[in-house]
Amino acid sequence: MNQLESRFFRASRVPGALYRRVQTAQAVLPPLIVLVVVVYQLLVVRLDPTQTEFWAALLFYGIAGPLVTFFVLTWIATEVRERERAESDLRDLYSELSESHARLAAVQRVTRNVSEASDLESVLETAIASVAEAVGAKAGAIILESGVVRTFNLEELPLEVTDLEPLRVAVGVLDRPSSISSAKSRLSSSLRFADRFLGALHLYFVGMPRAESRELLEILVGEIAVAVDAASIRTRDLLTLFEVDKSIRAEINLERLLENVLTRIRERVRAEASAVYLADEDERLTLAWGRDVQGRVVRSSSEHGWTTGNLALESALQRLPLSVPNLERQPMLETAQGMVLIDQPDDPVLGGAKAAIALPMLTESELVGVIVLGHSQENAFDTRELPLLNLLASQVTLAVRNARAYLYSEEIAIFDERSRIAREIHDGIAQSLAFTAMKLDLSAKLLEKDPKRVLAELELAKTTLREQIKEVRRSIFALRPLDLERLGFMETVRQYTKDFGEQNNLKTTLELLGEPRLSPTNEAVMFRILQEALNNIAKHSRAKNATVTLQSYPNRTQLTVQDDGIGFDPSALTGRVTTAGGLGLSQMRERVEARGGQFEYASRKGNGTRVTAVLP
User: Fold this and answer.
1) How far is residue 591's CA from residue 144's CA, in Å, rounded to a whole number?
2) 295: burial class by Cβ within 10 Å (0-12, 13-18, 19+)?
3) Are residues 85 and 93 in contact, defined by beta-carbon separation less than 8 angstroms?
4) What is the pLDDT of residues 556-590, one digit of tens each?
C-alpha cells in the first residue's frame, strides 16, 4: 500500500507530463527527419538536387518516414493519455478508499469502545471522548433526556448543552458557541433510536468542522444511539430485577408478594393486564392474583364463574412461553394436539386484550404456575424481551416456593406450639390443679378430726392456685398476638417490654441503639426471641430488673436481654422446653441459626443471665 501510494504521489506531482513529451516529439520529429534526410542526401550521398534520384530519395525518406513517425507517436500519445487518465481515476479512488477506511476505522473504534462499556454512564463517557477524537473536536458533551450529562474537556457546562428543545425537531445544528471563547464553532446532533428522541451530542471546534467530519458524525451518532438505547435497556432490566428481588425479600404474604412482583413486571414491559395462575399438586391452575386491561383486580372465585384462560392452560401444558401478537387475528393457536382456542371471552384477565404473553413458572421437576401478561393494543410486546421475562418468571417461581415453604413452616410451628402448650398444661397447670384438688379432698376429711392441719392444707392449696393463676396469665400474655406489621417492629418491642414488666411485677428497661434493618421474617424471629427470653426471666430467675438492648450495626442487629436474678448452671441444662409459652434455650438457638444468625447465653448462679441473639 505504501509503494502504491508513493508512486501515485510522484505521478501526481506533474500531471500529464509524459503525454506532453509525446506531443512535443510528435511536433518535432517529422520535420527533423526531413531535415536529416536532406542533409544526408546533400552532404553524405552528394546527390545533385537537379537529379531525379535526389527527389526520389527525398520524397520516400522525407515523407514516408515522418508520416510513420507521426502516426506512431499519435498512437503512443493516445495510449499515454488513457493511461494517465486511468492513473488519475485510480488516485481519486485510492483517496476515497483511504478516507472511507479512516472513517470506518473511526466508527469501529467508537463502536468497540462503547460496546465494552459496562453501564450507561460508562457508555456516555466513552462515547463523547471517542467521538471528539474521531472528528477532531476540541471538547464535547452528551446529555440524555433523563438529565444524565457527560463531558469531554469542558471545565464548566455551557447552557446550550442542557437545552434540548432545538434538537427535538432538528437532526443537526451548526452554530457558534455562546460561552467557550476558544471554540469558533459548535456542531450539535440529536440522538435518536427508532424515531425516539434520546438526547443530544455537542462538539466544539477551534475552526469550522470539515464536511468529512460532519459526515462521520452522522454515522457515529447512529452507533452511539444504538449503544445508549441498549445500555438503557440493560439498566432498566437490572433495576427491574433488583426491584423484583427486593419485593420478594421484603414480603412473605403470598398475595401481596404476587401483586408487588406483577406490578414491577407490568411496568417494565408496559403491560396493561397481568395475572399469576398457581398450580396445585395435580397441576390444576387457579388464579391467585390478577389485574385486567381496565385496571380492575381479579381473584379466583367460583361464584363469578371465572375459569382459567386457555393461553395459561396451553403454556402450562407445553411448558413453553407463548406469545400472541394479535388475539383477534390469531384466535387459534396451532399445537401438537391440534388447534386451540386462545381468545376466550370469559377469561378473567385477557378479556378485551389484543396481545398476550404466557410464561410458565417451572422448577426442575414441577410446574409452579403461569404468568400471563396482556395489552389492549396488538403487537404491544417485543419478543426480544422474552429472555428477561423468563428470568423474572424464574424469580417469581422461587418467591412462590419460598412463600409456600414459609406457610408450611408456619403450620408446622403452630402444630408444634399447640403440642407444647398441651404438654405444658399437662405437666404444669393440670398437675398443680390435681394437687390442689387432692389437698381440698384431704381437708374435707380432716375438717372435724384436725382443724389446724386443715387450715395448713387450705393455705397450701390457696398458694398453689395463686401461682397457677399467675402462670395462666403469663401464658396468655406470651401467646397474645401482636401485630408487627401494623405497629412496626420498634413500636411492638417498646409496647411488649413495657407491658411485660407491668404484668410480671418486673422493672424493665429498654435501650434502642440505631434503627434496625431486618427483613419481615427476621423481625418476627427476633421478636419471638425477646418474648421467650423475658418469659424465662419471669418464670425462673426471681429477678427484680431486666434490661433489653436492641443495637443496630450496618449489616446486623443484636438483641441482648440481661436480668439480675439467681442465674443457673449452664452445664445442668437438659434442653427440654421449660416455660409455658416459651422455648428452651436450645430451640431459641435453632431458630436464630436457621436465619443465618448467632445465639449465645451466659449465666452463673447468683449473677443473673444474659441472652444474646444476632440476626443479619
Assistant:
1) 50
2) exposed
3) no
4) 889 999 898 888 877 766 544 443 334 567 778 88
307: amino acid identity, one letter: T
3-state secondary structure of 191: strand
Query: 117-238: which CATH number, 2.40.70.10, 3.40.1010.10, 3.30.70.580, 3.30.450.40?
Result: 3.30.450.40
pLDDT digits 0-9 by tens, 50-91: 667 777 777 777 777 777 777 877 788 788 778 878 888 778
According to DSSP, the residues that pair with 511 across neighbouring strands are: 549
SS3 track for 286-308: EEEEEECCCCCEECCCHHHCCCC
Q: The CATH number of 251-385 is which of 3.50.30.30, 2.102.30.10, 3.30.70.100, 3.30.450.40?
A: 3.30.450.40
The structure's pTM equals 0.45
Question: With b meaning 16 or more CB within 10 Å and e meaning fewer, what string describes 185-209?
Answer: bbbbbbbbbeeebbbbbbbbbeeeb
Domain 482-616 has CATH 3.30.565.10: yes
CA distance 289 to 284: 15
- Inter-residue contact 391 to 362 (CB < 8 Å): no
Cα–Cα distance for residue pair 244/264, rounded to 1 Å: 6
CB burial of residue 466 (10 Å; 0-12, 13-18, 19+): exposed
* Grid coordinates given for 279: 398450580
Taking the alpha carbons at both ends of the chain, their separation in whole angstroms is 67
Starting at the edge strand that comes first in sequence, how are the strands of the sheet with 172-175 ordered? 149-152, 139-144, 196-205, 185-193, 172-175
Contact of 108 with 130, CB cutoff 8 Å: no
